[in-house]
Amino acid sequence: MLTIDKKLISYTSALLEIPVEHYVLIAQTKPKAMLLSVPNLYLYEQSRSSEQTSRRYAGVIAMFYKFLSTRRKFRSLSPGDYHVITTNLDIQLWQLERQSIRVRHDSDRPTTATTFDDAKIVQAFFAWVVKAGFTTNVKIHLETWIANFKQDRMLNYIKRRAGVRIDSDPIRVLDKRAHQKRPQSLITNKDIKILLQTYPDKVYAVLFNFSLATAIRPMELCKFPYLGKGKNRHILPYSELPKDQGTFEYEVLGKGKKLRTIKIPAYALKDIYDSYTSTEYPVRKKKYKEKFGKPCPPSILFLNAEGVPVDETMITNATNYACRIAHEKDPTFRKSNNFYQSRHWWPTVMMAQHHGKKLLTPAADVFDAAFVQVLTNQMGHSDPVTTYSHYLDFARSLAMAKGGHVNEIITEDFNINAQLEVFG
Q: Pick from 111, 107, 145, 99: which is nearest to 126 by CA?
C-alpha cells in the first residue's frame, strides 16, 4: 500500500500576498518523495481558512489514495495521476472496503455515517478537479459513488470480503452498537473528577477545566497566551489582573478564521494561575528554551511536560488515553467521554440559569434573541435556532435529574466549579 504523509505548511501566497497555512500530501515513492500536486492545490484553495478542516480533508484524501494504490489498474500509475482514471465505482468500492474491514474486525468504527461523510469529502474533491479543468473519470452529476449498505447485493459483497458467514446484517448491528456507546448526555460530575485525576499531564486537566468555564474550542485553547497583545493586551497572569473585575473580554480567532469576542470569568483565570501558571509554567518554559534554543514567546502559555506547545491533536490523544485508563480503573466511567464534553457544560448550565424555574415549562421554548446572541457568540456557532434547541434539551435533562428544582440550585454567581457540585 502507498505511504502518504500529510504535513502542515505556512507561507506567503504569491497570488493573495498574505500568509496562508494548510496541509499538503506527500507520497513516499522509492527512492523519492512526491508532492501530490492536484490534491495539494485543492487543499490550498478549499481548506486554508481552517487548520482543522485542512487536516481532515488531507487525511480523508490520503486514505482514499492509499486504497486506490491497492487496486490493479492504479499499480503502474504515478500517484500524482490517480485522479485521471478514478471513477465513481472506485469511490463506492472504497466505502465497501472500509465496511468489510470493520465487519472482519467486529469494530464499531467507522460507522456507515462516517464512511458516507468521508466519501462526500472525496466527491467534493473531484467536483473541484472537474471545475479546475483537470481530467477525471468521476461523474459529478451521477450518484453512483454512494454505497447503499442496505442493499442485499452490497451486504453480500461485504460479507464475502470480510469472511463473515452469518445471515444477519453485520453493518446494522455494528452501527447500533456504536450508537449505543455514543454519549447521549453531559459528562457526569463523577466522571469529570476521575478524568481530571487520570490525565497523564496536568496541563490537560487545566485545559479541560478552562473549557468547562468558557466553552472555548480545543484549537482556541491552544492559542491562549501568557501575555496578550493588541486587543488582548489586558490578558495577563491572574496575579497582575485587577481583582475588582468579574469577567474579561478576549478576542479569539476561531474556526474558519472568524474573529469573535468572548467573556472569560476571573475565577477561570485564577484557576489557571493557581494550578498551572505559578507552578508548572516556569519549569516548562525552561524546557521549551532547551528544546528549541530560544525563549518561549509570550503568545504561548500551555506547554506539555517536555516543554512542547500543546496542540489540538495532543489534547485529543491525551484525553482518549485518560478515558481509556479511567474506564479500566472504574468500569462505571463512560469510555465514550471526550474532551468536547467540556465545551458543552458552559452553554447547558447557562441555559438552566437563564430560565430558572421556567426551564421545564413551555415558556422556555420561546426564542430569546438577546440570550441566544450571547450563547452563539461564546460558542462560535452560526445557527442560533439549532444551538438554542440543543442546549435547551441538555439543560432540561439536568433539571429533571434534580427533580425540577432548578430555582434552588441556580445562583446569580455563575461559577462552573460550583455548578459541578450540583449538576453531577
A: 145
User: Which residues, at least 6 apart from 312, have a Cβ–Cβ distance to it below 8 Å?
Assistant: 52, 218, 219, 222
What lies within 8 Å, CB to CB, of 183 at 6+ separation is 334, 336, 337, 338, 341
Mean pLDDT of all residues belonging to the chain: 85
Is 334 domain-assigned? Answer: no
Q: Which domain holds residue 47?
A: 1-85
Phi, psi for residue 21 in degrees, rounded to 5: -145, 130
Among the residues of 16-87, which ranges form H helices?
A: 37-47, 51-68, 82-85
Contacts for 107 with CB less than 8 Å, ≥ 6 apart: 101, 174
Q: CA 333 to CA 9: how far, in whole Å?
A: 39
Query: Within this chain, do residues 198 and 316 fall inside the same structural domain, yes or no?
Result: yes
Q: Collect all residues with Cβ–Cβ distance below 8 Å to 169 and sequence separation of at least 6.
A: 150, 155
Percent of the chain with pLDDT over 70: 85
Same domain assignment for residues 229 and 280: yes
